[in-house]
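Q: Given only this backbone (400 positions), what sequence would you predict?
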């Protein structure tokens, strides 16, 4: 548990291997927890989250302090200090206060340096193998295999499968931080539930929801750029566009990945076809998960319609299901990967399907600490996207 971390030494933050979209690096803190740079508007959302929405968002676990570390060879890593907490925050799972001063170091510099030396070789090799000289990863990406960094529980390294997009974001993020800040700078990171930790082979669809993507605080240049992206994609016509995807191919034993650049180019028919592809495991259409997904989306739609003043600009919706089927002899991943992906031999249909809203850095609502504009009624752009998504899934279910 995150809150029971008192006295622990620095934890190396790993790239989150199941990040399929976004531009900000999401990192793995431990098996059930991920973290990301704290944005005050997103923190405000989680702190005042309506009860009805909690089942559709990751659990908020608090705040942790992180710093950048560079070794003598110039290798960059991020270290979280569980015992280095903001005054007044107490246990990490109850954190989130506004007092960010009077820090107390609990991790020694020597232990941090030793940790980096043990892990920088694997991290560098992973980046090189996963992103060979390409800053923008394109379509039809497949997982590659490489060493996993030591986890927060100090377990030994193991072979694992990486999503190239997450590694791309992680490398970019480290480079940006290195160019802007020195190593002594402490950064606030948000701790959130790892919503895919319970899945054997997590198939994930990242959807950018709504007809408008720019926040109220966007500059005129950024506003124009986002409006153009919406007009040239399915955001305008459907109220939803694909930002990333990974789907387990049972016939071949690997994951097929798509990125946001692929999603931007899709027509409404291309969107429908890609949605169909997301639900296909290489052998057949996963008809068993269609109804549970549709039911969850309808439940979310009902909740969103009741949230007056909320505008979820630039937020995403994750649709998640387990690529592992009980009664099917699926082609397994490489033997080295079995320990990571296969958590249990018994999985219910209910646990294999999930719908979660994420990324609230530009979400605004009445009473928000960072509110720029107060809106009336529900987010009709988001509702438009949800209704179209449900309609397309229903058509797929009916074989249309």
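A: Predicted residues:
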């Amino acid at each position: 548990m995150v809150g029971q971390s008192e006295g622990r030494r620095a934890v190396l933050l790993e790239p989150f291997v199941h990040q399929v979209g976004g531009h900000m690096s999401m990192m793995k803190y431990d098996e059930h927890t991920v973290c990301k740079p704290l944005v005050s508007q997103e923190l405000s959302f989680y702190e005042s989250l309506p009860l009805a929405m909690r089942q559709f968002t990751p659990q908020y676990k608090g705040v942790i302090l992180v710093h950048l570390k560079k070794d003598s060879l110039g290798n960059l890593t991020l270290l979280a200090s569980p015992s280095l907490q903001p005054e007044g925050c107490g246990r990490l799972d109850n954190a989130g206060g506004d007092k960010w001063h009077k820090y107390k170091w609990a991790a020694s510099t020597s232990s941090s340096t030793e940790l980096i030396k043990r892990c920088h070789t694997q991290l560098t090799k992973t980046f090189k193998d996963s992103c060979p000289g390409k800053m923008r990863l394109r379509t039809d990406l497949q997982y590659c295999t490489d060493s996993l960094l030591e986890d927060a529980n100090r377990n030994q390294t193991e072979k694992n499968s990486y999503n190239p997009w997450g590694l791309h974001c992680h490398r970019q993020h480290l480079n940006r931080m290195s160019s802007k800040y020195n190593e002594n700078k402490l950064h606030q990171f948000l701790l959130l539930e790892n919503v895919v930790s319970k899945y054997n082979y997590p198939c994930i669809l990242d959807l950018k929801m709504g007809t408008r993507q720019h926040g109220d605080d966007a500059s005129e240049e950024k506003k124009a750029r986002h409006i153009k992206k919406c007009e040239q994609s399915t955001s305008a016509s459907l109220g939803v566009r694909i930002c990333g995807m990974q789907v387990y191919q049972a016939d071949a034993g690997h994951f097929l990945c798509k990125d946001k650049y692929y999603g931007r180019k899709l027509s409404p028919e291309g969107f429908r076809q890609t949605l169909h592809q997301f639900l296909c495991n290489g052998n057949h259409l996963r008809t068993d998960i269609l109804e549970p997904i549709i039911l969850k989306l309808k439940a979310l739609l009902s909740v969103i319609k009741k949230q007056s003043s909320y505008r979820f600009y630039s937020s995403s919706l994750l649709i998640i299901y387990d690529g592992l089927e009980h009664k099917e002899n699926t082609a397994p991943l490489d033997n080295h990967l079995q320990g990571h992906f296969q958590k249990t031999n018994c999985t219910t249909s209910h646990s294999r399907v999930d719908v979660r809203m994420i990324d609230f850095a530009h979400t605004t609502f009445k009473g928000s600490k960072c509110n720029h504009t107060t809106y009336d009624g529900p987010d009709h752009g988001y509702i438009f996207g949800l209704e179209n998504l449900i309609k397309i899934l229903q058509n797929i279910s009916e074989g249309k």
